[in-house]
Task: structure prediction
Amino acid sequence: MSYAGDISCGEGWEMLSADPAAQLIDVRTSAEWNFVGVPMLTAIGKEPLLVDWQNYPSMAVNAAFVEAVSSQLQRLGVGKDAPLLCICRSGARSASAAAALTAAGFSAAYNVAGGFEGARDSSGHRGAVEGWKHDGLPWMQG
Result:
């Protein structure tokens, strides 16, 4: 594993709640943020950072991802040792994003393995098995 590790959505919420420096980075696309929803962190005085790992609609990897995250973290006064929790739809893109952040010198980049919507159930639907929404964590639809 080339990042700090995989954590559940609940573990992520606990880390975000307990550590003022911890940040949630939603690496999905703008279409997903607008139509599916975004995690809400207002109850703990935070907002997720929205930085797409892949550009929609081509789904090419965003070459400016690390630079964009670094810039937002710098603006917030968050250092390279802060816990960074990457989340995507189901945990695949966010694992790649966490690995890229680790390679760039961030020492505590995690993958939120259940993602925002989780894996598909036996009917092919997301949200019934695992994920931020499934776990009852706060979110808002655009």
User: Anything to note?
Assistant: The CA atoms of residues 31 and 120 lie 19 Å apart. The chain has one domain: 5-136.
